[in-house]
Amino acid sequence: MNQGNKLLNVEKLNVCYGKLAVVFDVSVNINAGEVVFLVGRNGAGKTTLLRTIAGFLQPASGEIEFNGKNLNKTGAYKTARMGLKYIHQDKQVFGDLTIRENLELSSYATKDYDWDPVFKMFPKLNTIIERKAGNLSGGEKQMLLIAMAMIGKPALVMLDEPTEGLAPHVIKDLAAIFKEISRTTTLFIVEQNLPLIASIADRVYCMKEGKVVNEITTREQISSMHFEQYL
Amino acid sequence: METWFTAVIYGLSTSGILFLVSLALSIGYGLMRIVNMEAMLYYSFGAYVTYSIVSMTGSFILGAIGATVIGGILGFVVETTLLRKVYHRNMMFTMVVTFSVFMIGIGVIQFIYGLDPKPLASPTSAIIRFMNVQIPLYRLIIIGLAVVAYILIQLLMNKTITGKALRAGIENRENVEGLGVNINRIFTTTFVIASAFAGLGGALNAPLVMVGPYMGFDMLLTAFITVILGGLGSIKGTMVAALILGQVVSVGGTIWAPLAFVGPFIVMFITILIRPTGLYGVKGTAFGFND
Amino acid sequence: MKLKNLEFLGPVFIIAGLLVSRYLFPNKITFFTEISIYTIYVMGNNILMGYMGYTSFGQPFYLSCGAYSAAIYLAYIGGNVFVAIFVAFLVGLLLSFILGPSLMRLKGSYFTLINASLCAIGVFMFERLLIDITNGNDGLWYRSNMHKTPLLDIRMPQNYFFFILIVLLAALYLYRKIDRSALGTVLKAASTNPRKMRFLGYNVFRIRWMAFTISVVFSTIAGALYSVNFGFVNPSLGENSRAIEVLLATLIGGIGTVYGPFFGALGFLGMKDFVSSFLSRWEFVVGIMTLIVLFKFNRGLWGMIQDAGSFLADTGRKFKNNSVKTAEK
Q1: pLDDT of residue B284
Q2: A69 has which bridge partners?
Q3: Are A148 and B179 in contact (CB < 8 Å)?
Q4: Distance in angstroms (rounded) separating the CA atoms of residues A91 and A87
Q5: CB contact under 8 A, B272 and C114
Q6: In angstroms, rounded to a whole number, what is the distance separating the alpha carbons of residues B13 and C119?
Q7: Residues of the domain holding A41
Q8: Tens-place pLDDT, residues B232-281
Q9: Does B114 touch chain C (CB under 8 A)?
């Protein structure tokens, strides 16, 4: 993977709900192959930023560029097909459908029917493939969601608080999985879990009250959890 | 005894029509969170188109096919030109919008066909005799067609990827989009199918009721009651509710005539008071619980 | 400044406007009577729609209940018109007492649909169940039963018009008072965030029930005024398809405002009068109009008047400022 290429470039983005602005002049850029984290308190505008990039919200102004293409007016499903996936915070899988059907749905959307890499990453999913996704544990749901996102071999996956509400040993597993994924895929993760960030982050953006207030780029600062003040 | 048996069969045919007509409402709310009152237009237009085709060609089968097609076309036009613009608005707004469309449609019907009800003869007057009971063949045909429609829809929902995407979309629309599925197209497809069924329902009901401009109103509330009782977005629920209401109307009406009219409303009041999500509804997807 | 004092006279202006119009167009008196009655009806709906955020497809039901209660009194029991209207008032209270507790617990669209069902049930009741009393579709006639009233014989259309104006004036002031009172504010607040209002210690349910009562009573009284006006009722007054008319009138006027209902009634009935002179398919026009108002015109006539007013005030102020500046120079 050629590191250093600008994969996602967000320039002076403003997002409003009606008349209420929630994201102000945010600029973020992510290079191919990186693992970038976004930290900040609740209500700092992290989720709004991700949802706007993913195409669920329209920016009021600013530019979103992905792989050299402008995403400003691209709808969510087109963004996903272009290789930019977004995993919601709420860990909602389609509970009424089996795991197989959940995966099928993702394959149908991206026309990628090759599930081997996914099963290699999550062997467990293959063993319970006919089970209804609604009956899975929180960790299993998160794994299924990541598996669904990985189908179609996206260039960039954005995750919104993937470890929220999960048991510590599951979080440890997830850290390993993220490391594994990051070899082929760029990751942009909103997270509150400091040890996880410290262990795998290449860069950290800190958001406060709708603005990016700091960008931490060196490993030393990251491993010293320099960004703790923003949580 | 014979009276009751006949009442049950008649009730089943009512259920069949109710099921066909209510699907559009159930799917409209289940997936897009809109209360699409204009669905009854597809039903009324279906009945009128059947009337026109039958008076031109004499063939009821052609009429029913025409009604199905017209229902689908109308559904397509309304969904793509109007409903898509109001999905994100609040439910009160969409209700008034779709109700207005319904009124416009009634106006159009009046322009074309006038105010007088149009009678339509039953396509077959054959009577089936079964254990001393005489049952019109036409009623049985309706029941048969409704069963076929139910099976088709179940196959669509459970065996095709479109159906799976639709079920997923009923649970969470955004997540389906996030996977890269064009949920709007899937919704349009489903909506067109549901509208076509409503058109067919109109065709089948045309010989049983007077075809009049306001026939949609008579059906609107009963169809809503079906959907509320069954639970929104649940095909199975719609079917079960249609079965129950058909019997309430038919058997209830045999016991005490006004029940044929008031019975469904009583069922609705009880449902809303005891179980607002309906028989098979998912919690949080009842009317008015998300707006 | 002075504008605020003028605002207090708003209802008087409306009444004066109606009076002047009545003498300018003497042959249109029934039209002005109808506008005044319709205003009261629209006010009832506006409380639900504009203040509480509830869209009811069942207003014709309350209207016809009022009309029929007055009509039945006049046809069978007595001849006093005022008593007939009072009966409708009592029926309104009774309806709200019975229906309010369950209806006010419902959310959004269930409320709409239940009201629509009430409409259907109402028509069924007046057309078939009570056919021995109401004569079904033939309607009930009782004009000859109405007694002469003291002071002003309101059986005469021109006198009835004055009576209606007095009622309207009272209704407008009451309505204005509701809008100004805590009730109006709390209702509006509760429609956007009922939970917060509950935390603040308001009994949202009771407040809504009260507002619902006012709304129902306004509708039943409007119904009674109608039935006295015509001396005749039939079940079509309460038909489901007419539910949208009052919604449209409310929207045309501008929802959630004090004077919106009057301008709504004026705009709606004026349009109806104009359209029906060359078009008999009324539903079509109503539907199209509603869509236009909803999408392009959502502040209504009163909103437009307010905009024009503030625009004029602004330009006036600018002009004044400019002239002051030029004078300084």
Answers
A1: 52
A2: A66
A3: yes
A4: 8
A5: yes
A6: 27
A7: 6-93+154-230
A8: 778 888 999 999 999 999 998 888 888 888 888 888 888 877 777 778 77
A9: no
